[in-house]
């Protein structure tokens, strides 16, 4: 009786068994990496809250994607924190409050945040003007709460009286004006004038700080002009004319122009019409100044910029996008239908957002700032101890911001950036770049003089080195040794302070025989009178072996970065590199078995941590590292022919074995076992990649092993079912083999392809590609 009950149950549940087996295989073949065991038990206790204050774009044709990037990156960070036990056993909850650039809504959002239960910190608020209104309305509540408030305000005077308020932005008073003053002294400008728009808080802070700076005695004119209309962009015409006449009479050789980017065009035009054309230090976006004005203006225009070096990407941001599916990191480009430009016809309806566009990369960096601050807050609070009250956690965060990560002593290593804060102003320590728009060049670049902060907090001059790396060929790429050989030209604009001996190639292989870099340097032109080369340039041909940091998760459909990494050899001769525009760089590179996808230049602002072993005094030494990067995609034709096609035929042969008559079931199993062994032998015959994670190639072989093993399992069941003459169950197994296995193969392959870049998937799905591969005309 038991035998009959077992037979009946098997007949009724054969479909359930098949589906269960299918789900098991799909789960095993998922392209996601197997997660490590959780570092801590699930978070317990009431959750702690962190409030984020953001502002959506309004008035623009397309959304820049800042808020979307914040939501994505912060949620990822939140999941990571909670997976590790939260903060001292308490889960972290994130509340995102959108002020939409409205003052009243921003005040209400801060009030809502302060009312959240177990509020650990507030992060955000990016306008100095709205910040003034917030502290005027809720200043006492913010101060008395003791809640760490990490704002994004650039004027430190706005929150000077609130010891629990910090800023992720450098302040106008502590960073912009000191660098501006140091640059003016180095360049030798003698008569300085300030022309600003009356009203904005940050402009008022710049003008007032100049009066108290090291160049206060050179400030010969100070004009603050109101707008002609309340909502207009133009300044009062008569007041502007009077200001220009006054500055011209005082022979100002540099004007600090802080009237807003849109208004700057009209003011520069008014300068030219009045035959008054001094050098300009623009407070605004220099790249948006109209080309016709900047090209005709007969003097240099400068700008201080914390964003990025012209023609150079931030390395960490670019790298994270390039190593994954770029489309997953596209945040900009959503159409804002309410923008006035759509009614006025000034918006571009054909605009196509790009993952690597400057706007999208800035959105990612902005979102990473919020994610970094969430990480900083939770790590600092965790150091307070597991049974610590919320009040003590808040104090631990404030203490970390003011002491542990104090400028010159320590830095918090975020995902994309390092973070330090001035203890006195409680603003971020980040020295701006000095950008120049030469009147003869027509495009921006770094000025010859730059500055970095010393550990004592003073400014130190460093040089801009104008460099280009022209890659000739890349060869002998070794995946397991993570190395490649390269031949390239190095061109350097001559500098009295910096030479080739002051440059260090960070990723050059060390030769054990000489204990030096594995490089051969040939001087092509080292200076002197000649008609062949520009006298201001130095040319070298360099050959050597270099390291690269591969990611084999998508092997053999992977894309890797091959770079030449340059940084100063000595801290006494620091520099930052300015490359030429991408359009002027040579795109031709000779490389075997790889295709050049793109090339770019990126930089990383790093710190060397130093601890005095005697006094135990910590400090950090900042420096810039520049990478000339060639992004290359591996050619896969050989893999298709040597691996994918044979595996496909192995699967087909094993699958077709089901149609052999049942009287030859032993032959069926023999054929399937042979197919399994053939797949194993093929895998062992391939060059093995030394990877810490399973590659796409590994998953493809595992898929083949599982499918053939499942066929063997079904065949064994059929032998047992046939011996008991269970015809219905035998038919069910045949259907499982004939129908479910192809479905399982397709689903598993789709999961594997999901991890690949979109372009690779499109290529694999293209009949034209396969037709060209096998030579069909």
Give the DSSP E fraction (strand runs of 2 or more residues). Answer: 15-25%
What would CATH call the architecture of the largest domain?
A: 3-Layer(aba) Sandwich
Sequence stretches where pLDDT stays below 50 over 5 or more residues: 1-19, 28-43
User: Span from first to last CA?
Assistant: 66 Å
Structural class: alpha/beta
Q: Given the C-alpha coordinates, what overall shape results?
A: globular
> What count of domains describes the coordinates?
4
Report on this model:
With 777 residues, the chain is α/β, with parallel strands linked by helices. It has four domains: 48-170 and 324-398, Rossmann fold, CATH 3.40.50.2300; 172-305, Rossmann fold; 457-634, Acetylcholine Binding Protein, Chain: A; 637-774, Methane Monooxygenase Hydroxylase, Chain G, domain 1 (Up-down Bundle). 38% of the residues lie in helices and 23% in strands. The protein contains 19 helices and 28 strands. Strand 6 (192-197), helix 6 and strand 7 form a beta-alpha-beta unit. The longest helix is centred in the last third of the chain and has 28 residues, at 696-723. The radius of gyration is 32 Å and the shape is globular.
């Amino acid at each position: 009786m038991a035998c009959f009950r077992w037979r009946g149950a098997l007949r009724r549940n054969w479909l359930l068994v098949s589906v269960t087996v299918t789900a098991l295989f799909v789960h095993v073949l998922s392209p996601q990496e197997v997660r490590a065991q959780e570092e801590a038990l699930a978070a317990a206790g009431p959750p702690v809250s962190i409030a984020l204050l953001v502002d959506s774009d309004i008035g623009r044709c397309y959304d820049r994607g800042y808020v979307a990037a914040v939501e994505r990156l912060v949620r990822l960070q939140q999941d990571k924190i909670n997976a590790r036990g939260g903060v001292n056993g308490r889960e972290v909850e994130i509340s995102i409050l959108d002020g939409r650039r409205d003052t009243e809504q921003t005040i209400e959002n801060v009030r809502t945040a302060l009312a959240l239960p177990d509020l650990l910190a507030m992060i955000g608020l990016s306008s100095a003007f709205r910040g003034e209104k917030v502290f005027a309305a809720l200043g006492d509540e913010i101060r008395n709460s003791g809640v760490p408030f990490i704002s994004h305000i650039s004027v430190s005077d706005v929150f000077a009286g609130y010891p629990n308020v910090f800023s992720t932005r450098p302040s106008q008073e502590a960073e912009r004006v000191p660098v501006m003053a140091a640059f003016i002294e180095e360049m030798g400008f003698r008569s300085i004038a300030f022309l600003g728009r009356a009203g904005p808080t940050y402009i008022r802070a710049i003008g007032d700080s100049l009066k108290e700076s090291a160049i206060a005695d050179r400030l010969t004119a100070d004009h603050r002009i109101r707008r002609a209309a309340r909502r207009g962009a133009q300044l009062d015409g008569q007041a502007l004319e009077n200001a220009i006449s006054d500055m011209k009479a005082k022979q100002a050789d540099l004007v600090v122009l802080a009237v807003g980017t849109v208004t700057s065009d009209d003011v520069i035009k008014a300068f030219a019409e009045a035959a008054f054309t001094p050098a300009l230090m623009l407070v605004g976006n220099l790249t948006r100044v109209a080309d016709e004005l900047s090209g005709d203006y007969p003097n240099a225009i400068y700008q201080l910029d914390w964003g990025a070096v012209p023609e150079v990407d931030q390395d960490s941001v670019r790298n994270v996008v390039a190593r994954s599916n770029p489309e997953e990191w596209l945040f900009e480009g959503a159409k804002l239908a309410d923008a006035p430009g759509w009614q006025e016809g000034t918006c571009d309806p054909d605009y196509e957002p790009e993952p690597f566009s400057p706007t999208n990369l800035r959105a990612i960096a902005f979102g990473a700032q919020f994610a970094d601050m969430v990480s900083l807050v939770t790590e600092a609070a965790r150091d307070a101890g597991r049974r610590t009250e919320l009040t003590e956690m808040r104090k631990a965060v404030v203490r970390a911001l003011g002491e542990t990560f104090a400028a010159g002593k320590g830095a918090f290593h975020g995902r994309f950036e390092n973070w330090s804060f001035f203890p006195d102003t409680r603003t971020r320590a980040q020295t701006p770049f000095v950008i120049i728009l030469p009147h003869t060049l027509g495009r921006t670049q770094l000025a010859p003089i730059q500055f970095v902060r010393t550990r004592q907090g003073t400014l130190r001059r460093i040089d801009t080195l104008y460099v280009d790396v022209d890659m000739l060929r890349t060869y002998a790429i070794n995946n397991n040794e993570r190395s490649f050989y390269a031949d390239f030209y190095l061109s350097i604009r001559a500098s009295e302070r910096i030479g080739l001996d002051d440059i260090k190639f960070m990723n050059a292989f060390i030769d054990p025989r000489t204990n030096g870099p594995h490089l051969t340097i040939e001087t092509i032109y080292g200076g002197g009178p000649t008609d062949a080369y520009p006298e201001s340039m130095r040319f070298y041909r360099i050959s050597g072996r270099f390291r690269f940091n591969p990611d084999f998760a998508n092997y053999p459909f992977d894309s890797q970065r091959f770079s030449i990494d340059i940084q100063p050899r000595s801290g006494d001769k620091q520099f930052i590199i300015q490359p030429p525009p991408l359009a002027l760089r040579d795109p031709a590179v000779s490389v075997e078995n790889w295709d050049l996808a793109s090339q770019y230049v990126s930089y990383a602002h790093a710190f060397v941590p130093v601890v005095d072993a005697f006094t135990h005094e910590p400090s950090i030494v900042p420096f810039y590292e520049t990478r000339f990067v060639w992004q290359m995609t591996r050619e896969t034709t050989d893999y298709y022919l040597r691996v994918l096609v044979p595996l496909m035929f192995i699967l087909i042969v094993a699958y077709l074995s089901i149609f052999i008559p049942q009287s030859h079931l032993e032959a069926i199993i023999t054929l399937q076992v042979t197919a399994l062994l053939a797949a194993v032998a093929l895998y062992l015959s391939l060059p093995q990649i030394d990877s810490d994670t399973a590659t796409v190639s590994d998953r493809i072989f595992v898929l083949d092993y599982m499918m053939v093993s499942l066929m063997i399992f079904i065949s064994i069941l059929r032998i047992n079912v046939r011996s008991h003459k269970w015809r219905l169950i035998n038919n069910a197994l045949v259907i499982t083999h004939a129908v479910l296995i192809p479905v399982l193969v397709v689903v598993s392959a789709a999961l594997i392809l999901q991890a690949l870049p979109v372009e690779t998937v499109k290529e694999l799905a293209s009949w034209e590609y396969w037709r060209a591969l096998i030579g069909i005309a």
